Amino acid sequence: MDIYEQVFENNRKWVAEKNADDPGFFEKLAREQHPKFLFIGCSDSRVPATSIMGVEPGEVFVHRNVANLVVNTDVNSHAVLHYAVDYLEVDHLVVCGHYGCGGINAALEPKDRGILNGWLREVRDVYRLHKEELDAIEDEEARRRKLVELNVEEQCINLIKTAVVQRHYLKRNKLPRVHGWVYDLKTGLLKDLKIPFEETMEKVREVYPLNPDD
Ligand code: CO
C-alpha cells in the first residue's frame, strides 16, 4: 500500500479504536469545542501540537507557520487569535518554537530567500534587537538555539501587544496567560521559558496601552 492509501487505512483504524474506547467520542466532539489552549507553533512536520502535548482532539486550538511568528499585519494569525480569545475564551496562549528550526537558521544566513524574505525579516528583526547578546555567543549552534528562544519571547510580546489579549486580561482576571515554550527535536521534551507574563504585560501597556473601554 502506498503512503497515500495508507492514510485512509490509518484513519479507519483510528476511528474504530476511538469508538471502541468511547462510543460517543465523535458525536460529543462534533457538538462543540472547549479547548483551554491556543498553540502557535512552527509548520515543521516534527512539531505536532497534540502529540507533543499529549492531548486529544478538542483540547488545543492550533495555528502554525514558518518559525512560529505573530506578525501584526498577518490577518491569518490574528483571525485565529481573535477566535481563540474572544469566542473560545482559551486560558493559555502558547508560542512554541523548536531547536533546529529551518526558518530561524535561514534568517541567520545572509542570503536572498525570495518570497520568504519578508517573512524571515521578522526573525532578522529579533536578531537585530538582541544582536549584542547573540554575537557574544561563539558557538554557532548555541547562538541558533538562543535565537529560537528569543524569537519565542518576542512573539509572546507581539501577542501581548494586541488589543484582544489586553482587553481579556483586564476583564477576565488576568486571563488568558501567555507562555513561551521551546520543543527539542532531539529529545522530544518541551521547555517552558517561563516568561515573566504579568511584568511584560505591564511594560507593554506603558507603550501600547489598548484599554478595554476605548
Ligand atoms: Co521551524
Characterization of this structure:
The protein has a single domain, classed as Carbonic anhydrase (Beta-carbonic Anhydrase, Chain A). The radius of gyration is 19 Å and the shape is globular. The chain is 51% helix and 14% strand. The chain has helices at residues 3-21, 25-31, 49-53, 75-87, 102-108, 117-129, 131-135, 140-160, 163-171, 197-207, and strands spanning 37-42, 60-65, 92-98, 177-183, 190-192. A hairpin with a 6-residue loop joins strand 4 (177-183) and strand 5. 27% of the residues are buried. It has 214 residues and is of the alpha/beta class. The termini are far apart. The site of cobalt (II) ion (CO) has 7 residues, from helix 5.
Record keyword descriptors for this entry.
five-stranded mixed beta sheet; single chain; 214 residues; alpha/beta; binds cobalt (II) ion
- Characterize the biggest β-sheet: 5 strands, mixed
What's the overall geometry? globular
Query: Strands of the largest sheet, in order across it?
Result: 2-1-3-4-5
CATH class: Alpha Beta
Number of helices: 10
- By CATH, the topology is Beta-carbonic Anhydrase, Chain A
Topology:
Elements: H1 3-21, H2 25-31, E1 37-42, H3 49-53, E2 60-65, H4 75-87, E3 92-98, H5 102-108, H6 117-129, H7 131-135, H8 140-160, H9 163-171, E4 177-183, E5 190-192, H10 197-207
Parallel strand pairs: 1-2, 1-3, 3-4
Antiparallel strand pairs: 4-5
Helix pairs in contact: 5-6
Bound molecules: cobalt (II) ion.
